[in-house]
UniProtKB/TrEMBL annotation:
Gene3D superfamilies: LON domain-like (2.30.130.40). It comes from Hipposideros armiger. GO terms for molecular function: ubiquitin protein ligase activity. InterPro entries: Lon_prtase_N, Lon_prtase_N_sf, PUA-like_sf. This is LON peptidase N-terminal domain and RING finger protein 2-like isoform X2. It comes from the Eukaryota. Residues 1-177 form the Lon N-terminal domain. PROSITE patterns: LON_N (PS51787). SUPFAM superfamilies: PUA domain-like.
Length: 177
């Protein structure tokens, strides 16, 4: 976390989708404001930017994930594909606009235990579960690994019950035919 501690003010923010620590986040960048943002991240050597969801009332979500750029491929039309990976969660303290894109002052979130982000598989599960962004965002902001894993467990129980109910319905229709 010490290598990130100096990147807390005016962090460039890409407003797009959910991102999670340890999970790859490929992006197709086609808006000029984000071309500029990515170019600046590369030129300054930070190779990092934040990813947040859009929030109607606040502009950007309260929580996000710091991404590290691994590779950028630029096309003749100016658009690019950015290969990035989530490295750390953060909370937005305040946000601003700079040259058309969002920036934010942030604080990094650390789990209560010694393991800063828990097992990587927990983020992968969260990334692929069929959840609304609001639910994913609530879990992203949790600093207790136990709390986060219990939330994922509750979600899996609900999904399993729904799948079992559907199977029972299918079985009853087959029986009645």
């Amino acid at each position: 976390m010490t290598e990130l501690s100096n990147l807390t003010r005016d962090v460039p923010i890409f407003v797009c989708a959910m991102a999670f620590p340890t999970v790859p986040c490929p992006l197709h960048v086609f808006e000029p404001r984000y071309w500029l943002m990515i170019r600046r991240c590369m030129e300054t050597g930070t190779k990092r930017f934040g990813m947040c969801l859009s929030a109607d009332h606040a502009g950007i979500s309260e929580y996000g994930c710091m991404l590290e750029i691994k590779d950028v491929r630029t096309f003749p039309d100016g658009s690019s594909v950015v290969d990035a990976i989530g490295i750390s969660r953060f909370r937005v303290l305040s946000h601003h606009h700079h040259d058309g894109y969002n920036t934010a002052d942030i604080e990094y979130l650390e789990d209560e235990k010694s393991n800063p982000s828990g097992p990587a598989w927990s983020w992968w599960i969260l990334a692929v579960l069929p959840l609304e962004s609001k639910a994913q965002l609530a879990i992203l902001g949790m600093t207790s690994l136990k709390e986060r894993l219990l939330a994922i467990r509750r979600i899996l129980v609900i999904i399993t019950r729904k799948m079992n109910s559907r199977q029972e319905l299918v079985n009853s229709r087959e029986w009645n035919n």
